[in-house]
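Weekly structure sync, notes
Attendees: PL (lead), two postdocs, one rotation student
Agenda item 3: pending single-chain targets
PL asked that the sequence for the first pending target be pasted directly into the notes so everyone works from the same version. It is reproduced below exactly as submitted, 202 residues in total.
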Amino acid sequence: MSKKSLLKDIAYEKIKEKILTEDEQYTSENSLVNELEMSRTPIREALQRLMHEGYIKIMPNQGIAIPDLSVKELNDITEYRIAIESTSIKQAVHLLNEDHYVYLQEIIERQKEAVNQNNVVQFIQSDVDFHLYLLEIVGNELFIQGFQHVSGRVFRLRRKMNSNPMQLLKRIEEHIRIIELLKDRNLDLVLEELENHLKSWA
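Predicted structure, written out during the meeting:
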């Protein structure tokens, strides 16, 4: 990997983290150059990628807007996740073994720790890890890539909307219920639980 590619990727990850974990609605190329202490070229390339992925809007002579998702975008993402995750669950239910369940329980413990520490960002990341792991067990790369993209798009909104500990604990209970139903291989109920879970918080 060339130094140019490496810098571009570093800039992408740093700017994306800033978008997801901070509340700014606007930024600029100049401020990012100063903040990240990088040249314009990797930052500009990273911004083009983020714009293509829908995280930002670049407005000539005005700066960079970080828009929130519209209701339609959020609904579209929810429907997409229900489709790919339900399809994967139908296969995963026959593949899951004790090692898989141990790891899923570890994720839940990380979520509980995040609630105790009032760390919403860590909680949401662990929530993403839970659902991503169920996709990885099946191994459909297109589903995995698509999930990573849409979960990133909705991360910022979820962080703003979900800071109530009781609400986060309810999410954990739903994850535990999904695991129990998977262990019982009760496919109909686990699909119903998964759909309700995703509709309540995309």
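Discussion points:
- The mean pLDDT is 91.
- The domain at 71-200 is CATH 1.20.120.530 (Four Helix Bundle (Hemerythrin (Met), subunit A)).
Action: rotation student to compare against the earlier draft before next sync.
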